[in-house]
Design a protein that fits this description.
By secondary structure, the chain is mainly beta. 3% of the residues lie in helices and 40% in strands.
Length: 489
C-alpha cells in the first residue's frame, strides 16, 4: 500500500521502549465493514481503504482500545473520508504535529481527546465539520492551523472543540478561508492575538466567546464580516482592533462597534517586503513605511557595500531611493553587482604622441586611475578631450570611459635652434634647400596630420613630385628637432 498522507510528524520516540505486539487487523468501514481496515503493528496504526470509517460512541468500543497506550504513529490512506468518533481518544504517546490528510471531510466527536502529547494541529481545506470535544484536553497543543474553506459545524456551546487545550496560544487561519464556523475556538483563553484573513465574510455565533486573553485583533477584510450571536462574547471591548485605512467608519458603525469593540485602529493593510539579492554586496531599507497617513506611499532604498554597486530592482526600475504607491502586498529585490570600471586612453594622432594608463581603477585604490600623455619630438600635449590639461592626470572613476590626449605641433622650440635653420625657397616648386649651422641627421617631409611622406639625408631635396599644398618639414639635428611649414606650388 502506498502511504499518501502521514497523520503525525515527529512521532518517532527516541528512547521509548514499547513491548512488541503481534500485528492485528480490523474491518472498520461503514456501511461496508471491509471497505476500510485498521492494522496495528509495533506501535503504528494504519487506516487504509476507500470511504468512511466507523464512528464509535465511547473509547471502550474502539477495536484497538487495548493498544492505544502503545500507539506512537498513525497513518491514513488518502481514500479515507472521515475520522470516527473516539478513534484516537487517549492515545497519549501520539506527539508532535497532527496534520490531517486532505481527503478527510469529517472529524467526529472526541476523535483526538486526551492526546496530551500533541503540540500542533492542522485542519485541511477539505474538512466541513468537526465534532464535539474533537481535541478536548490536548494539553500540549500550542498551535492550530485552520485551513477549512467550507467548515460549517465545529463543536457546540457546551462541548467546544479545543476546550482544555491550556497551552493553545497561536491560531493561524488560512488565507482562503471565507467562513469561521460557530463555536470555533470557544473558551481558548490563552490566545492573545488573532488575524482574520481578507476573504472572511462571516464569523459564526460564539466563535471567539470567552477568549478573554485576547489583547488585539487584526481584521483584514475591508467590508466588516457578519457576526453571529455572541461571536466575541467576553472579549475585552477596549482591545485594539486593527482595520484597513478606509474601513474604520464601516467597522465602527457595524455590529463590531455596536456590540463588541470601541477601539478601532486604522492600519495599512498591505505589506511591502524588501530584500537584497546578496547581503554581502549591499543592503535595503525603508526610508518610509506605507501607512494610512501617507496614503500607502513607501520609500525604499538600496545601499551598496564597498566595491559593489546598485544596478536595479527586480522589476527593472533603477530609481534609488524609490517611491512606491502600495496597492497590494508587494516584494522588491535590490540587484547589486561587483563594481568593475574600465577606462581606455588614446592619442588624437600616434605620430604626435602616445597616451598610457599608469594606474588602473580598482576597489583597492578606490577606483582612482592615473593616465599620462607623452608627446613625440617636435610636438606637444595640449589637453584631454574633456578639456582637462593635467598631465599626468588622476581620475576618480565612476563609470566606464575613454580619454583622448590631444597633441599638436610644438610652437615652443628654442629660439637659437630655430634661428640656426632656414629652408628656401618657400613656397617651392622643385628644389628645396635646407641650411643649418648644426649637423643635420635626417629631414622628414610630413602632411599636416603628421604622416611622413619622405625622409632625406641631404640638404638639397627635389620636391617636384609633391602635390600642391601645405606640408611640415621636420629637421632632426644634433641639437634638437625643428618643424617648419612648407608651401608647395
Amino acid at each position: 500500500m502506498k502511504i499518501l498522507n502521514i497523520f503525525f510528524v515527529a512521532l518517532a520516540f527516541f528512547g521509548l521502549s514499547i513491548g512488541a505486539v503481534d500485528a492485528q487487523t480490523w474491518n472498520i468501514g461503514s456501511p461496508t465493514a471491509s471497505s476500510v481496515t485498521a492494522t496495528y503493528n509495533s506501535g503504528t496504526l494504519t487506516i487504509s481503504g476507500i470511504g468512511k470509517m466507523e464512528s464509535w460512541l465511547n473509547s471502550s468500543s474502539v477495536p484497538w482500545r487495548n493498544q492505544k497506550g502503545s500507539i506512537t504513529t498513525v497513518i491514513i490512506d488518502e481514500g479515507i473520508t472521515n475520522i470516527g468518533g473516539y478513534a484516537f481518544y487517549g492515545c497519549s504517546l501520539l506527539a508532535g504535529a497532527a496534520t490531517i490528510p486532505n481527503s478527510i471531510n469529517t472529524i467526529a466527536a472526541s476523535a483526538f481527546s486526551n492526546c496530551v502529547s500533541l503540540t500542533s494541529v492542522t485542519i485541511p481545506s477539505s474538512v466541513t465539520s468537526i465534532g464535539n470535544y474533537a481535541f478536548y484536553n490536548c494539553t500540549g497543543v500550542t498551535t492550530v492551523n485552520f485551513n477549512a474553506t467550507n467548515c460549517t459545524a465545529m463543536g457546540s456551546y457546551l462541548y467546544p472543540v479545543f476546550e482544555g487545550c491550556i497551552l493553545f496560544s497561536t491560531l493561524n487561519i488560512g488565507s482562503n478561508v471565507t467562513k469561521i464556523p460557530p463555536d470555533f475556538i470557544r473558551t481558548c483563553s490563552g490566545l492573545t492575538s488573532v488575524t482574520i484573513p481578507n476573504l472572511v465574510t462571516s464569523i459564526g455565533g460564539g466563535a471567539f466567546d470567552e477568549c478573554i486573553g485576547l489583547t488585539e485583533l487584526i481584521v483584514e477584510p475591508t467590508t466588516p464580516p457578519q457576526l453571529g450571536p455572541n461571536a466575541f462574547g467576553s472579549v475585552p471591548a477596549n482591545i485594539p482592533v486593527y482595520v484597513a485605512c478606509q474601513s474604520h467608519n464601516a467597522y465602527q458603525n457595524s455590529d463590531w462597534g455596536n456590540y463588541y469593540f470601541n477601539n478601532f485602529q486604522s492600519e495599512f493593510q498591505y505589506v511591502v517586503d524588501i530584500q537584497s539579492n546578496d547581503n554581502s554586496m549591499g543592503s535595503v531599507s525603508f526610508v518610509q513605511q506605507p501607512s494610512c497617513k501617507n496614503n500607502g506611499t513607501a520609500i525604499i532604498k538600496a545601499t551598496a557595500n564597498n566595491c559593489h554597486r546598485f544596478v536595479k530592482w527586480n522589476d527593472n526600475n533603477t530609481s534609488n531611493p524609490r517611491t512606491v504607491n502600495v496597492t497590494d502586498n508587494m516584494s522588491f529585490t535590490a540587484i547589486f553587482e561587483p563594481t568593475n570600471y574600465t577606462i581606455a586612453v588614446q592619442s588624437n594622432n600616434t605620430n604626435f604622441g602616445q597616451a598610457v594608463i599608469l594606474q588602473e581603477p580598482t576597489c583597492q585604490n578606490n577606483y582612482q586611475a592615473i593616465i599620462q600623455a607623452t608627446a613625440n619630438s617636435g610636438y606637444r600635449f595640449v589637453k584631454w578631450n574633456d578639456n582637462n590639461t593635467s598631465n599626468p592626470r588622476t581620475i576618480n572613476v565612476t563609470s566606464n570611459g575613454t580619454f583622448t590626449a590631444i597633441f599638436e605641433v610644438s610652437a615652443g622650440i628654442d629660439d637659437i635652434l630655430l634661428k640656426s635653420i632656414s629652408i628656401y625657397p618657400n613656397p617651392v616648386k622643385e628644389e628645396l634647400i635646407i641650411s643649418s649651422e648644426n649637423k643635420i641627421e635626417k629631414i622628414e617631409i610630413c602632411d599636416l596630420a603628421g604622416k611622413v611622406h619622405s625622409t632625406h639625408s641631404t640638404k638639397t631635396i627635389n620636391v617636384s613630385a609633391l602635390l600642391q599644398g601645405v606640408y611640415l618639414v621636420k629637421i632632426h639635428t644634433d641639437k634638437g628637432v625643428v618643424t617648419q611649414k612648407l608651401v608647395k606650388n
